[in-house]
Amino acid sequence: MEPKPMDDIDGTLQNPGLSAPPITVKRTVTSTGARITTQIKEDGSEDSEEVKPVKSLVGDEVEDKVVVSENVCSDCLAASVEGVKSSRTRFEEFIKANKKIVSEEECLKIESKEEPQVNRVKEEPDVGFDDKKKPEDSASNRPLVPEKSVEAKVPSVPETSVKNMPYQEWLQFRGYAKSSGEGTNSHEKKVKPEGLETARLANESKANVRVREEPRLFAENKVNVKEESVRSSFWSKPQKVKKEKVEEQRVSAGLVEDGDFPEDPDWFLVGRTLVTALSTTKGRKLVDNEIVHFTFPSPNSRYNMQWIVRFSTKRSGEIGRLPMEWAKCVVPLVCSNKVKVLGRCVAAPANLSLMQEIMLYVSFYIHHSIFSDWDKSSWRLDGCRSIDSTVYPLLTLFNLLKNKPFQKADFTPAELDSRKRLLNLEGDSEEAASMLPIVKRRKGCQQFPEQNKDEQTITESSLNKLMGAAEVYNLEEMEPPNTLLCDLRPYQKQALYWMSKLEQGIDVEKAAETLHPCWSAYRICDGRASSIYVNVFSGEATTKFPTATQMARGGILADAMGLGKTVMTIALILARRGRGCPDNEELDTETVDNAQITKKRKIDSHINISSKAKGGTLIVCPMALLGQWKDELETHSEPESISIFVHYGGDRTNNPKVIAEHDVVLTTYGVLTAAYKSDAEDSIFHKVSWYRVVLDEAHTIKCWKTLGAQAACALSSCCRWCLTGTPLQNNLEDLYSLLCFLHVEPWCNWAWWNKLIQKPYENGDPRAMKLIKAILRPLMLRRTKETKDKEGRPILVLPPTDIQIIECEQSEAEHDFYDALFRKSKVQFDQFVAQGKVLHNFANILELLLRLRQCCNHPFLVMSRADSQKYTDLNKLAKRFLETNTDSGTNQTVPTRAYIEEVVEGIRRGENMECPICMEFADDPVLTPCAHRMCRECLLSSWRTPTSGLCPICRQLLKKTELITCPTENQFRVDVENNWKESSKVSKLLDCLEQICESGSGEKSIVFSQWTSFLDLLEIPLKRRGVGFLRFDGKLVQKQRERVLKEFSETKDKMVLLMSLKAGGVGLNLTAASHVFLMDPWWNPAVEEQAIMRIHRIGQKRTVRVRRFIVRDTVEERMQQVQARKQRMIAGALTEEEVRMARIEELKMLFR
Amino acid sequence: MANSNLPRRIIKETQRLLSEPAPGISASPSEDNMRYFNVMILGPAQSPYEGGVFKLELFLPEEYPMAAPKVRFLTKIYHPNIDKLGRICLDILKDKWSPALQIRTVLLSIQALLSAPNPDDPLSENIAKHWKTNEAEAVETAKEWTRLYASGA
């Protein structure tokens, strides 16, 4: 059966239609009437207090009449108690008394509705009056119907038990009584306006079916059920009625279960409603008012069975099923054991056939424990459900019951879904749209690994577009406390103001009395129950008042790198000091006289929170920044003003009270995650109720499924902050994780995020972007160095940067070398082009390019290095091998002679083998004593110590000194140390460095290259010229890094820092230097930009001079063009196919 | 930033796994995370696992190949070196890892482990005991489990 649309039920309940136009309404009246009265009757019989609320469902217009009905109803009730006879007499009296009250109009309606009576009579027997009378009734009724002799039926009326007679039916009876009293003339009058209808009924001569039919007809106004077939099944019935009646009476006598449901102190009534169920059995199995029992599928039912709710009667077994719509919300609720369902039949065909509609009157109860158990803060009555589901049973039940929240959530999923809610955004869909291709491209370019990584990174400019960074912020400024020892710039004071405001949130007192905007408040029928609050986004329910104080406090400080997020945060820490979650404390002391609920919550929160130590600020940062945070906290705050505690390293305390004592606790993501992993919510961090948690480089938790992200989310804190220059790194999901941490409802709920943002965004729906902007607007502060203040001046005035390109001219020898290499590479490239396999050989091509680019830096980089000339003769090498091996005589596994000969032969033939570790052609291959070849770098980095380790192939212990640089037959084989020659680029660099040195300004320089092997080469001339230098690359462990950076900023001798372009990555502060040398162009300009940023940031007092070295007429020059092109591509203007083509074009460009 | 790029080695290994799969082994990367592989290993012939199709998951950590991949059986299996969570006791996945090993070699080793259970280095004490005290019966159980959990998946 198709479930009745909600509107219908709604209509029936709310609009009994007494005031609507006669003909159509008549049907409605009957159907609704029947329902309503049933309701009242039942309520009355079970729980008289309930009469009023239910009654109020009936529209106001009805009210007057209901007043009458109420009396009647109570009379009925009384009657039912007193017994059939007395009820009969009272009823008659009542009818007399009320004759005049019943309006003519009503009579009209009622009269035309009279047909049900026959049916009614047929069904009433179970009520238990004399069998003898019954046949008479029906006998007298039967012939009457075709004749439309209404009066004739009247005598039968009092004989039906009032007990079972719902109000509206009773009303009808009353109508009969009246019409009978007034006699035939009134009847004739009535027939006229009824013309058509009566005629039809007469023709069909089965008017007695109408009552059954009405509800269905009503439903069919909208839902097109197979009316005819259903009807015909009814039509065929009455002929047998007489017989059946008699039989049924016998069969059912004494067996029909139709008593009232006992009131159960443990179960509170949620509500009652009519449900149209479907029969699954045939026969005379059900009588009105019979109690039905529901059977729920077991929790482990198979997929297609899990929503089947059957119902049965005690005497006849299974009758039918609940409609899916109901089953889906009822099953999980019942499975939770907190909800029970009772029902009885109110209208069913006497003789059921399959798939017929049965009207059930169903009551829902909720267990009192949910109102009294305080150990759980909230519950969801739906067991295990899919994380992507946005359908919540309890909410569905309330909806189906038409239980409207008395206080509605500020914004609901439906509104957001339909985008009805104005998001208050400027029309910037264009910009948003330009962001979208990035996602598409990401999916399409997995075969291009090399560039993939760059493009995945959302560039600064697109980020700015998305986050609207260019805006002018008109924030007030807030003076930092005296304990802050450094001066804040105006925009930093703005940030302090903004952060303080967000931390204060809404006024605590007010917030405590304000319903959280994501929650709706419901009342259930049972007066004993307190209100139920349901989160419309997560489906969580609670009986405690969810206050607005539970809303997110804090946000994302997403200022671009170099604007001083750390200092702003320190200012905030100093300005707003606190312990634990003050909301709860304040609540405890406050006198909130509204509602016990709040008090209850107080008790609860007290229990929960007081057991936790109250902590200050927890700062979680990457390991690399731990030292920097500590230093900055110490230098920027007045001594003794705050206590700082670093929770990191071997001998860590495990006592939450210890760390809670300090104002600021510093730790790393690793430590936090490890603690959460081993102790979950009982970890040292989670046992503390923090005042504030700050995640530095918060994009570290961008994957919300990771333990790290979960550990951060699970922290209990009043205020939460994310510091990141890149809130979005690769994917919109990154942002979701941050919102989770911030507890921003409803967006920290994956289902809604996915439904309203993630999916639409991936599908290119620009509204998703708008929504994100709307969400972020109040939560995120993002300025860049270009951001202007109110007067249009840049917020941050840093010393200028002076970027120049230094063009180098290759020497003749260099040029020849380069040329040879280029021609060789081009032949190979052209081959790929000719075969149309450019993209398939992308890695190989990049390899060719790599060689060319390295050659621009120094030809040595593409030559084989020879540590000594000793083994250039391969025969000698072979000999040496065999010698050492026989000499050593240790337990080392000795490679066989045959193997060594094979290896040597391979080297002789100039075979370049693949390094087993990086699986690329070995770059600077070494030969181990066990005759295995691999990249020097790969091998060394696989070792735990720098001097020795195991052979990755045979696990033999090797020493660094034992490694032999692979001799090759390459003509460009050199010993770099002994044959050192400067390349043109190196010469230029050295000139520059010398000039700086001579100027005596004491300025320091940083030299960036992407190849550590080039940095190795650079060390040679620096040493020779006696230039003091330091080196910083990925091989340094944390301690060494800190030491190197400290030394560089303090030293007066070592004025140069050789740094690998990608080392360090986050947050390094290199303002000690003011000269930047970028030795080689990188594919993605953003990487170079980042490198410069490390120097050009707050604290930089000098002009930053950036020198980029480009060798003229080489691949480097063309890479410049590619970079420019890439800028455009990242801006998102190209389609996927265009990007593919562009890629090939790009490569062709390089090999021009 | 370094997190987002996939080392060329992983790409190469993936391509090779797909183009020349090892017999009885299939490994394919997940679409949304190229470091996560769905693996299926056929129970080796003449082992109690013959006829079974075993699902595993394999994850390449950030440090790979300097750190071992993380591998776990998803299909229930009765084996002294595999616990009920599917964790595998195999030296090359722990201290004996070498960067010269690959996804392929790891999976082949696991396949070999199925052929040659090693109850002397157990992960699952009970199963190992069973294996040692009554190998025939243990093998029967392993066959039964294979039939129950690893057939026709």
UniProtKB/TrEMBL annotation, chain A:
Annotated region described as Disordered, given as residue ranges: 1-23, 106-157
Gene Ontology CC terms, in alphabetical order: nucleus
Residues annotated as domain Helicase C-terminal: 985-1147
Residues annotated as transmembrane: none
Helicase ATP-binding domain mapped to chain residues: 546-745
InterPro entries: Helicase_ATP-bd, Helicase_C-like, HIRAN, P-loop_NTPase, SNF2-like_sf, SNF2/RAD54-like_C, SNF2_N, SNF2_RAD54_helicase_TF
GO BP: chromatin organization; DNA repair
Primary localisation category: nucleus
Pfam families per UniProt: Helicase_C (PF00271), HIRAN (PF08797), SNF2-rel_dom (PF00176), zf-C3HC4 (PF00097)
Record carries keyword Cell wall biogenesis/degradation: no
Family to which the UniProt record says this protein belongs: Belongs to the SNF2/RAD54 helicase family. RAD16 subfamily.
Identification of the protein by name: DNA/RNA helicase protein
Source organism of the structure: Quercus rubra (Northern red oak)
Automatic annotation (TrEMBL), chain B:
Residues of the UBC core domain: 5-151
Keywords assigned: ATP-binding, Nucleotide-binding, Transferase, Ubl conjugation pathway
Catalytic residues (UniProt): C89 (glycyl thioester intermediate)
InterPro entries: UBC, UBQ-conjugating_AS, UBQ-conjugating_enzyme/RWD
Alphabetized GO MF terms: ATP binding; ubiquitin conjugating enzyme activity
SUPFAM superfamilies linked to this entry: UBC-like
Documented EC number(s): 2.3.2.23
Alphabetized PANTHER family for the sequence: UBIQUITIN-CONJUGATING ENZYME E2
Family: Belongs to the ubiquitin-conjugating enzyme family.
Assembly and oligomerization: Interacts with yeast and human Mms2, with the RING domain of RGLG2 and with UEV1A, UEV1B, UEV1C and UEV1D.
Function recorded in the entry: Catalyzes the synthesis of non-canonical poly-ubiquitin chains that are linked through 'Lys-63'. This type of poly-ubiquitination does not lead to protein degradation by the proteasome. Mediates transcriptional activation of target genes. Required for postreplication repair of UV-damaged DNA and for adapting root developmental programs to suboptimal availability of iron.
Protein name: E2 ubiquitin-conjugating enzyme
